[in-house]
Design brief:
The chain has 6 helices and 6 strands, in the order βαβααβαβαββα. It has 173 residues and is an alpha/beta fold. 36% of the residues are buried.
Length: 173
C-alpha cells in the first residue's frame, strides 16, 4: 500500500489537490493508494503524542503509517523549506518502526519559481536519517497555481510527463 501524505494542514491546499492527482494516476496504473492529509491530525497532538505519549486519536494514524510500505510526500514550500507540521508529524510517529526500511518518493511544489528545491533537500536528509529509501527522481513543481486544469488535473506537458515517470519508477521501486 502507498500512502500519499499531503504535507500541510492548510485548508484548500495545492498539496492536497496534487495528492489527489497522484492517487488517481496510481489507481489508473492498477496499484493501491490512499491519501493522508495533515489536516486530519488531532488538534492537540503536540500535547498528546510527542515524547513517547500516544493518544487514541493518533493511534489510528500510527496504525496506518505502520501498515504502509511506500510513501509519497507532497511538500509545499514554507519559508524556504517544508511545513513545520510535517516535521512534528514525523516526530510524533513511532521511531524507528514507522519509516525504517520503507520507500518514499518526494514531490516539492511552490507558488514561486523553484518548486521547493531547498525544502525537498531538507526533507531528503530527514528521510535518510529515519532510514527511508528515497526514490532518486524527485519532482519540483513551481508556479503550482498554473499547473491544474478546471478538473483538478495537471495538464502542462512536461509536468505530466515527469510526474508519470516518477509514478512509474516508484511503483517499480
Amino acid at each position: 500500500m502507498t500512502t500519499i501524505i499531503s504535507c500541510t494542514n492548510r485548508q484548500g491546499s495545492n498539496s492536497l489537490k496534487l495528492s489527489e492527482y497522484y492517487k488517481k494516476q496510481i489507481l489508473a496504473k492498477g496499484a493501491e493508494a490512499e491519501i493522508f492529509s495533515l489536516m486530519d491530525l488531532p488538534d492537540n497532538f503536540i500535547n498528546t503524542d510527542l515524547y513517547g505519549k500516544r493518544s487514541e486519536a493518533f493511534q489510528s494514524i500510527q496504525n496506518k503509517i505502520s501498515a504502509t510500505s511506500k510513501f509519497i510526500f507532497i511538500a509545499p514550500e514554507y519559508n524556504g523549506s517544508f511545513p513545520g507540521i510535517l516535521k512534528l508529524f514525523i516526530d510524533a510517529c513511532t521511531f524507528p518502526d514507522s519509516f525504517f526500511g520503507k520507500k518514499v518518493a518526494l514531490v516539492g511544489l511552490s507558488t514561486g519559481k523553484y518548486g521547493n528545491v531547498r525544502g525537498i533537500e531538507h526533507l531528503t536528509g530527514i528521510c535518510h536519517y529515519i532510514n527511508l529509501h528515497v526514490l532518486p527522481l524527485r519532482i519540483h513543481i513551481p508556479s503550482i497555481g498554473k499547473e491544474f486544469n478546471e478538473n483538478g488535473d495537471l495538464f502542462l506537458e512536461d509536468t505530466v510527463k515527469f510526474v508519470d515517470q516518477q509514478i512509474t519508477n516508484f511503483l517499480e521501486f
